[in-house]
Specification:
The complex is a heterotrimer. By secondary structure, chain A is α/β, with parallel strands linked by helices. Chain A has two domains: 3-145, Glucose Oxidase, domain 1 (3-Layer(bba) Sandwich), CATH 3.50.30.20; 153-357, Rossmann fold, CATH 3.40.50. Chain A is built from ten helices and 21 strands. Chain A starts with a strand and ends in a 6-residue tail after the last helix. Chain B has five domains: 7-114, Rossmann fold (3-Layer(aba) Sandwich), CATH 3.40.50; 127-139 and 210-349, D-amino Acid Aminotransferase, Chain A, domain 1 (2-Layer Sandwich); 144-206, 2-Layer Sandwich (Dna Ligase, domain 1), CATH 3.30.1490; 529-656, Rossmann fold (3-Layer(aba) Sandwich), CATH 3.40.50; 657-831, ATP-grasp fold, B domain (D-amino Acid Aminotransferase, Chain A, domain 1, 2-Layer Sandwich), CATH 3.30.470. In chain B, the strands form six sheets. Chain B has a seven-stranded antiparallel sheet with strand order 14-13-10-11-12-15-16, sandwiched between helices. Chain B has a seven-stranded mixed sheet with strand order 17-18-21-20-19-22-23, with helices on both faces. In chain B, strand 22, helix 22 and strand 23 form a beta-alpha-beta unit. The radius of gyration of chain B is 27 Å and the shape is globular. The relative contact order of chain B is 0.09. The longest helix of chain C is centred in the N-terminal third of the chain and has 19 residues, at 8-26. A five-stranded parallel sheet of chain C has the order 3-2-4-5-6, with helices on both faces. In chain C, helix 4 (110-122) links the parallel strand 4 and strand 5 (127-135). Chain C has helices at residues 8-26, 40-56, 81-84, 110-122; strands spanning 2-6, 32-37, 62-65, 98-106, 127-135, 147-151, 159-163, 172-176. Chains in contact: A-B, A-C, B-C. Chains A and B meet through helix 3 and strand 17 of A and strand 11, helix 9 and helix 16 of B.
Chain lengths: 363, 833, 177
């Protein structure tokens, strides 16, 4: 086993054993505490430029399933875990984690005290890290000198529109670094989907005559995107039902005058209770967020806060008062994570059905 | 909002047996702590003499009676409680709750059943109703049909496919079930079955033998908020009772889609039953596609509810008590040591737990020892580690009867027998699985034969490789590092290399990673919890730190076996309670997930670590206890620990090797307490009640005071005092007598009072004898007060403790057992005639 | 045998969505009153009111309407109007209010027509909207719901049964063949 190192911006170095690719990479270090779905996590584009620490101590146990990827070309910068199992099952045509990481040039390190790293991140906040062969001064210099790109969405989102045809509602998905779980849920509901690039204009979108519009998840800070995106959102939200998720939710909030700020410690897990304000019920969902909408910045004449995280108080859902446009910070598609809130997609379908039934009446 | 409840009747779990150990008492105990917070008055009914719960309740509020319908009705009519809490009394208590509702006792006395409404409980108790409910909410249940001829059977098979199980109804004699994989087998099975049925009907059902068994434990509140506490995966497939399965937490071989589908199903089931509190749902998950069946729904506290709590560190019992009382998840206030969010944060784990069952076949060997759908294990131990291998080794290590740091092997079994045991598993199955790997069976082959997921064989294989590396590279730092990583403790390394453990300790100083302790808490490091529950690992960060002030380490008994084990856990628990009262900080080390002594509120720190010398020494090293208590009869550990002269080791009851018997007979005994030169008579005992045998090894029943106490007691006590040499004996001592044909009593031996009987004496004399012993050995005993409490010759009634044996559960025809075959006891009282 | 079309969760969501749509359509909750149509409509109206309370921190009045005697498809003796109204509980004025009528199932439209008559007997509201949990089609009158939880196309032979946990043992909508 090759020994390699995870080195952190604060000067700490963790020796461990290499798996996956032997590439040297740098990214933000984030801890994910979801206990199932390492495949969905690693292949999610929101981890572009990030090194994922799994707090769940053992991954790789089931191999990687053809039906569970969240993207075709994963862009995470590394995987850190206590223990990994390199299991593949021919029966399900699953490939092993090691092979997958090698294919996509993602380095991994195991046999590391991930619980200690989790504690460190909680204590000192987000930090950069590198996966390197030698933990010397040079490596640390490189780490400190590395400036991570802020063009993340452009790097992972589709540059051209493409269709995912079916016979149901006509849904336009604006891709900011889309996770496939969203498309899967729309497919299950027979939506005729067109995925369009993140920088599409409202005109391009409305020309597709959508019954509904989805603003997708994606990596990085919403403030990295040009204001034209916000303009697009304000222009389309009054024209068709809109469902925004993750980065899409943050953009929806910005477009409607709210502020978004970076969390001191990114939150990736499925353990925080989310309260739906209107029913006072709590549920759980996969959450992968580095940013949060500031509740104080919400203009209540424009937006309802629909969901909050009971642990850190962050806004988890919004809804426009005047239009059927709503957004959630978490991942209702449950890939990975609980499916407690997957019904939001049904709501979206119902809203589209209502609108169609009234022939646009009411807009 | 919380209900207005001032008086609660809590139903106890009754004597321990196969299928339920101390976990029900542990749960009831935690319930008690929670209920006390609400200010409610608690009435408790239980006849388990080893119940800790019943001692924490005002004696006037405890009914020492068998937990049955008749007794509970009487108590309800006398006490008029506002509510009944039956969910920690096992299935028995739930059935009583159902009877109470059916017979109108609940409504006529205006009593609320907590946890589940009677109408919903019915859907769980009645299997047909449960099937209807599950079908209605679109959950799959195993299809079954009663058929009258071959054609109907074939129609059924065409609908559901092979394999199916055929069984004659009203059979002429008790017959087995036939598993049919094809038409030929089906025709044969129908042929035989139709010949055996009196009513010309057979049942035919879909077979799910070989499916994965997955268990989910969730909680739900009155508002419908739900949270999953933990998923559990049985390594053994459907066909082996979950109680006899090796269980992993978290689930290991499910992909996210499968896991979430089961989570959602669990929630849907809890909603459809309007459960408040905990619910445990078992599933059969297909190995070849995403299909699953619901196999069991338990909206009450079960063995694996406790396992889920131990796996995650989430206080399930405590929280669910409040949920049953109508609090919502967000309203539950936890003790200060938990973070304020914890009650409603879904537990997430950063460690692995493995549970291995313990079977009674060493003590009862003339029964069918095959593992099947009838549960046979009497206890279990858990191992927790940061890696799957670590957890497996620790649990295997703990599951051994001997504390000698040895991993057993079954290398003498011949090849045919190995194959036979792979297909027809016996107890300690994991040893055969490892042996098969050692002999070169391929993983695919093994997975095919056993229906155990390949993942587990990969892990076992890695363990074998690590073991051979360690064996082949003795006394090298690399070997120590590999050994540590895979969970081999220092004691085990010393055994493998045949050196003294101190040699390993010396070498450890040169190894990079020293032993560290990680906290078991439900946020996976997100919050700084203070659950004070730890397990070991060799990593960077240590989270367990010594206490300030006087500290006592109590070494728990480990997994339950037959013999006085549930009593030993009671004994251990009482030591903890006594120590706490004397101002010591207490540390418990145990591996039994069902032990009351591992209840978080009972000690200041809990270690879930193998009860083995190496692991004990590591903990002593970290915590530097002033005193180490070793409850129970464990000569090897006592001897080993006493070699470390810097340790103050107290063995309780005092070492039983000094017991001396003149004959192997006794009918009567005098119990005495010896403190230095003083002998205090305690009481007298007659040994036979249900069992007329007087052989020492068959003495299982106790009656206090002795029969004919009015005439014989005073002189017998005097006779007993004469034979006790105060230089030799200390503590609780029992002088044995045999009543001869002439009516005289002749002394046949002296021994320390047994653990079971100490519990009995505590219940009958009103003096906590374990507390007395703890104080005696700490030099804190107040003899004056003790003298005043004891009035040996005044009695109000007979107290009787009768042993229970698991013969019926093991399908044995025996009915009388030895002290080593006891599985539990019951306590009752009888007025003098 | 019934088949569950909407389970507890779906029912909850449908009512939640209807609540948002009510606010959206009325541009707020000013002058809003809810009137539930006998039995299950009343419970649904209360649930919507609870949601509005959570969302906007306002208490919306909820009235109860028994339209048995207004039904034109049920034969009954002619009665005086105060006997007609005996089972209603509407202790607020609807004058100038935005009334939301709430019912469980919209079918022929006759119940709603009767409810409209009953409401109009009480005063002159600013507007009347209709919210239903289920629209199963087969209208016999020109009536349309403004807020629909779920469209459930059904044949006339089938029955739709709505259960509410306040009086039934569960929350569900079942299609009974």
């Amino acid at each position: 086993m090759t020994q390699r190192y995870l080195i952190l911006e604060d000067g700490s170095a963790y020796p461990g054993k290499a798996f996956g690719s032997l590439a040297t990479t740098t990214g933000e270090l984030v801890a994910n505490s979801t206990m199932n779905g390492y495949q969905e996590i690693i292949s999610n584009q929101i981890y572009h430029n990030q090194i994922i620490v799994f707090t769940q101590s053992s991954i790789g146990n089931t191999g990687l399933d053809q039906n569970a990827y969240e993207s075709i070309l994963p862009s995470a910068k590394g995987v850190i875990v206590r223990e990994y199992e390199n299991l593949a099952t021919d029966h399900f045509k699953r490939i092993s984690l090691d092979k997958y990481l090698k294919q996509h040039r993602i380095p991994g390190i195991y046999d590391v005290d991930t619980r200690e790293i989790r504690h460190r991140l909680q204590k000192y906040g987000n930090m950069k890290a590198s996966i390197v062969d030698v933990a010397d001064d040079h490596a640390f210099d490189q780490l400190h000198a590395t400036v991570l790109t802020n063009q993340q969405v452009a790097q992972v989102a589709t540059p051209k529109p493409y269709p995912n045809p079916d016979e149901g509602d006509n849904v336009v998905v604006v891709d900011f670094g889309l996770k496939s779980g969203i498309l899967r849920e729309l497919s299950r509901r027979n939506c005729n989907v067109t995925v369009v690039p993140w920088n599409s204009t409202s005109e391009m979108i409305l020309d597709l005559d959508p019954d509904g519009i989805v603003l997708s998840t994606g990596p990085g800070a919403p403030s990295n995107l040009p204001s034209s995106v916000l303009k697009m959102i304000t222009e389309v939200q009054s024209q068709a039902p809109m469902f925004a998720i993750g980065l899409g939710h943050e953009l929806f909030a910005l477009a409607n005058g709210a502020r978004v700020s970076k969390l001191r410690v990114e939150h990736h897990g499925a353990n925080h209770p989310i309260r739906e304000i209107i029913t006072n019920e709590i549920f759980f969902s996969g959450q992968e967020q580095g940013y949060a909408v500031d509740p104080k910045s919400i203009d209540h004449a424009k937006l309802f806060i629909t969901h909050v995280d009971l642990v850190n108080g962050t806004v988890q859902g919004l809804r426009h008062r005047d239009f059927p446009a709503f957004s959630v910070q978490f991942s209702p598609d449950g890939a990975p994570g609980p499916k407690d809130s997957v019904g939001l997609f049904d709501d979206f379908m119902e809203i589209m059905e209502r609108r169609r039934g009234y022939n646009g009446n009411g807009y | 909002m919380a209900m207005d409840i001032n008086k609660v009747l809590l139903l106890g779990g009754g004597p321990t047996n196969i299928g339920h150990e101390n976990e029900l008492d542990a749960a009831a105990f935690e319930r008690l702590i929670a209920l006390k917070k609400t200010g409610a008055q608690i009435i408790y009914v239980d006849d388990n003499p080893f119940s800790v719960t019943s001692e924490e309740i005002q004696p006037a509020n405890v009914y020492v009676q068998q937990v049955n319908f008749k007794n509970v009705v009487n108590i309800v009519e006398k006490e008029h409680p506002d509510a009944i809490m039956a969910t920690t009394g096992g299935l028995n208590a739930m059935q009583i709750a159902w009877q109470l509702s059916e017979s109108g006792v609940l409504s006529s006395n205006n009593v609320t059943l907590l946890g589940i409404k009677p109408a919903d409980l019915r859907k769980v108790i009645d299997n047909q109703k449960l099937r209807e409910l599950l079908t209605e909410i679109n959950e799959r249940v195993i299809a079954s049909r009663i058929v009258a001829d071959d054609n109907e059977a074939m129609d059924f098979v065409r609908e559901v496919g092979f394999p199916v199980i055929v069984k004659p109804i009203s059979a002429s004699h008790d017959t087995s079930r036939f598993i049919c994989n094809n038409t030929d087998e089906l025709e044969d099975a129908l042929d035989v079955s139709f010949k055996r049925t009196y009513i010309k009907r057979c049942s035919i059902e879909q077979s799910i033998v070989g499916y994965k068994e997955i268990e989910m434990v969730g909680v739900r509140d009155v508002n419908g908020n739900k949270m999953l506490v933990s998923g559990l995966e049985d390594m053994d497939p459907i066909g082996i009772h979950s109680g006899d399965s090796i269980i992993f937490a978290p689930t290991q071989t499910l992909i996210n889609e499968e896991y979430q589908a089961l989570r959602t199903a669990t929630f849907r089931i809890m909603d459809s039953l309007n459960v408040t509190g905990t619910c445990h749902v078992q599933f059969a998950q297909s190995r070849t596609d995403s299909n699953y069946f619901v196999t069991k729904v338990s909206p009450f506290f079960t063995r694996n509810t406790m396992l889920a709590a131990k796996a995650t560190g989430y206080p399930v019992t405590y929280v669910s008590s409040f949920l049953e009382l109508g609090y919502s998840l967000t309203e539950v206030k936890l003790p200060a040591k938990y973070s304020k969010y914890l009650a409603f944060m879904e537990p997430t784990m950063d460690h692995v737990l493995v549970r291995i069952p313990l079977w009674p076949f060493r003590d009862i060997n003339d029964v069918d020892q095959h593992l099947n759908t009838l549960m046979k294990s009497v206890g279990s131990t858990i191992g927790i580690g940061r890696t799957v291998e670590e957890a497996i080794i620790k649990s295997m290590h703990s599951s051994q009867f001997s504390p000698r740091d040895i991993l057993p092997s079954v290398s003498k079994v011949d090849d045919d027998d190995v194959i036979n045991q792979l297909i027809h598993p016996l107890a300690s199955r994991i040893l055969i699985l490892m042996e098969a790997l050692r002999r070169g069976f391929s993983i695919d082959e093994l997975s095919e034969l056993t229906q155990i997921d390949r993942f587990y064989f990969y892990k076992l294989n890695q363990l074998l490789r690590a073991q051979s590396f360690v064996v082949n590279n003795p006394m090298s730092p690399e070997s120590i590092q590999v050994g540590h990583k895979y969970g081999f403790g220092d004691g085990m390394l010393a055994e493998l290399w045949n050196v003294n453990i101190s040699e390993i300790s010396k070498m450890n100083q040169d190894v990079k990673y020293q032993v560290t302790y990680k906290e078991i808490e439900p946020s996976a490091g997100e919050f700084l919890e203070n659950t004070s529950i730890f397990y070991s690992s060799y990593e960077l960060e240590n989270e367990s730190h010594p206490f300030e002030g006087k500290t006592a380490l109590v070494i728990g008994r480990g997994g339950n076996q037959l013999g006085p084990n549930s009593a030993a856990d009671y004994y251990t628990t009482q030591i903890l309670i006594s120590l706490k009262k004397t101002g010591y900080k207490t540390i418990i080390m145990n591996t039994n997930p069902n032990a009351v002594s591992l209840t978080p509120q009972l000690s200041d720190k809990q270690y879930i670590e193998p009860i083995q010398l190496g692991n004990i020494l590591n903990i002593i090293d970290i915590d530097q206890p002033d005193v180490v208590f070793l409850p129970g009869n464990r000569h090897y550990l006592a001897n080993q620990l006493q070699q470390f002269t810097n340790l103050n080791v107290i063995v309780l009851p005092p070492d039983q090797k000094v017991a001396s018997y003149k004959e192997n007979q006794a009918t009567t005994a005098v119990d005495l307490f010896v403190q230095k030169g003083e002998i205090l008579p305690v009481t007298t005992i007659s040994f036979f009640k249900h069992d007329n045998r007087t052989d020492i090894h068959h003495i299982n029943d106790y009656q206090e005071p002795m029969t004919n106490w009015e005439s014989d007691e005073v002189s017998l006590i005097a006779q007993a005092i004469d034979v006790v040499n105060v230089g030799e004996w200390q503590g609780l001592v029992q002088v044995l007598f045999d009543k001869t044909a002439t009516g005289k009593y002749s002394c046949t031996g002296i021994r320390p009072v047994r653990i079971t009987e100490t519990a009995f004496l505590t219940k009958t004399t009103g003096i906590n004898w374990i507390n007395v012993l703890v104080r005696k050995y700490l030099g804190l005993l107040d003899m004056n007060s003790l003298r005043n409490q004891i009035v040996p010759t005044e009695h109000k009634r007979y107290s009787i403790m009768a042993a229970h044996f698991p013969f019926k559960e093991l399908q044995s025809n025996r009915n009388e057992g030895t002290t080593k075959q006891e599985v539990g006891s019951s306590l009752s009282f009888e007025n003098f005639s | 045998m019934g088949k569950i079309i909407l389970d507890k969760m779906a029912m909850q969501r449908a009512l939640t969505r209807i609540t948002y749509e009510i606010v959206e359509k009325n541009k707020g909750v000013e002058d809003l009153v809810l009137i539930g149509i006998k039995t299950r409509g009343i419970f649904l109206a209360n649930r919507i009111a609870n949601r509005l309370q959570q969302l906007e921190n306002v208490t919306i009045p909820v009235g109860e309407l028994d339209i048995t005697n207004y039904r034109d498809d049920i034969e009954h003796d002619s009665m005086s109007s105060d006997v007609k109204m005996s089972n209603n509980k509407i202790d607020f004025s609807i004058e100038g209010k935005r009334v939301i009528l709430v019912d469980d199932v919209l079918y022929t439209g006759r119940t709603v027509r009767a409810a409209l008559s009953a409401v109009m007997d009480l005063g002159r509201p600013k507007s009347i909207n209709l919210a239903v949990l289920v629209d199963r089609g087969h209208r016999e009158l020109p009536i349309r719901a403004d807020f629909v939880g779920k469209n459930i196309p059904s044949s006339q032979k089938e029955k739709i049964k709505v259960y509410v946990s306040e009086i039934d043992d569960k929350d569900a909508v079942e299609l009974i063949k």
